[in-house]
Design a protein that fits this description.
- With 347 residues, this protein is of the alpha/beta class.
- The chain is 42% helix and 17% strand.
- The chain contains 16 helices and 14 strands.
- It has helices at 16-30, 61-71, 83-94, 107-114, 119-131, 141-149, 195-198, 215-221, 233-242, 257-264, 275-281, 293-300, 305-312, 317-331, 335-338, 340-345, and strands at residues 2-6, 34-38, 45-48, 51-57, 75-78, 100-102, 136-138, 155-157, 181-185, 205-209, 226-229, 245-248, 269-271, 287-289.
- The chain has a six-stranded parallel beta sheet, sandwiched between helices. Strands 11-10-9-12-13-14 form a six-stranded parallel beta sheet, with helices on both faces. A two-stranded antiparallel sheet has the order 3-4.
- Helix 4 runs antiparallel to helix 5 (119-131).
- It is globular and about 60 Å long.
């Protein structure tokens, strides 16, 4: 089976969408499925006002047509709602090709945090975009319920995973900082609510891993916090393992892969009691949830690191990928019909 995934989020971006798509493709190939991508690579790009870290791709439909003709995929998955995803959606709609989509990011909340655009306008666009999808994949039951209540149809769950070989307890790792070490990992942007963590009166040291448009201002305002910049791979895994508590202040993340990365490293979590965090953690004794984030941070210090690791071991990228492939296969267009469209479009 050949799958083509269209996405606006791609390297060199460091975020949960890119990590999810990369891990899913790698695992799918090991399971015998051929996965290719249509990404912003090769397209001209423009900067977005109020979003200096984002370069928006301007895809050419001719390139999309040639990509389809070259790959002859059996199934199409559209991972994002930006210009690349929109171009692929248009192609599929014009030629009656079924496709699936996924909802990764709470764009209405993110856009409202940085611009005067009303959230309802963004939700209207998202309902239209996903309305033509055969299946709308989401990471949690909480998000599925939220989208259904907002009028989305054919919403199905696609679980997430974590690399438990990379992210693991490493008793030998330490940091030369006053303890306890409270760690946060992710993009440093206003919608991540990072200041709710940085403003806390906590013992020890606050460490922030990541980069983004809000970093200069926050680093200046909170000089006692340690800002490491973006980290990946083994360097990131070592920081998780050396910390004492992982702090997740976001109200808007739809899942938060960093939660699983922290737990796989044996790192207890402190967070607000929002629905999408509850959907990941459930009743497991690995996370302290409280409307008072300071209280949650201090309670998390007493949680079992071994329990965190045990919980994370239940989440694998193989299981996640099998969920994804099941939904894609159910929406795949029969090959004999699919092959007609690219040839016709090139004439």
């Amino acid at each position: 089976m050949r799958i083509l995934i269209a996405t606006d989020a791609w390297h060199p971006q460091i975020n949960g969408v890119v990590r999810t798509l990369t891990a899913t493709a790698d695992c799918a190939r090991k399971l015998g499925t051929d996965v290719s991508f249509l990404t912003p690579e090769g397209f001209p790009r423009v900067l977005l006002p109020n979003y200096p870290e984002i370069k928006l791709a301007l895809p050419r439909l001719k390139t999309v047509r040639h990509k389809m003709a070259e790959l002859r995929p059996d199934a199409i998955h559209i991972a994002t709602e930006g210009p690349v995803g929109l171009a692929m959606r248009r192609y599929c709609r014009q030629h009656s090709i079924r496709f699936t989509t996924s909802f990764h990011t709470d764009f209405p909340a993110y856009i409202a945090a940085r611009s005067p655009i009303p959230e309802r306008w963004v939700w209207r666009y998202l309902r239209w975009f996903h309305g033509a999808s055969d299946r709308v994949m989401v990471a949690s039951s909480a998000l599925a319920k939220q989208l259904t209540m907002r009028g989305f149809e054919r919403v199905v769950q696609w679980s997430r995973g974590v690399d438990t070989g990379l992210f693991r307890p490493r008793p030998e790792e330490t940091v030369h900082l006053p303890r306890p070490v409270f760690l946060s990992v992710g993009r440093i942007a206003i919608e991540k609510n990072l200041e709710a963590f940085l403003a806390l009166d906590l013992p020890g040291t606050k460490v922030v891993v990541g980069d983004g448009p809000a970093r200069p201002a926050l680093a200046k305002k909170y000089p006692d916090a340690v800002f490491t910049g973006a980290k990946e791979g083994d360097a990131l895994a070592k920081i998780y393992a050396a910390a004492d508590v992982f702090v997740f202040p976001s109200h808007t993340d739809t899942f938060g892969l960093v939660l699983l990365e922290a737990l796989a490293s044996g790192l207890p979590v402190a967070a607000f009691p929002v629905a999408n965090v509850r959907a990941v953690i459930g009743d497991a004794p690995v996370c302290a949830l409280d409307e008072d984030l300071q209280t949650a941070c201090l309670r998390a210090l007493a949680l079992s690191r071994a329990a965190c690791r045990t919980f994370a071991e239940r989440w694998s990228w193989e299981n996640s990928t099998r969920h994804f492939l099941k939904h894609v296969r159910l929406a795949a267009t029969p090959a004999q019909e699919f092959e007609i469209a690219p040839k016709a479009l090139l004439s």
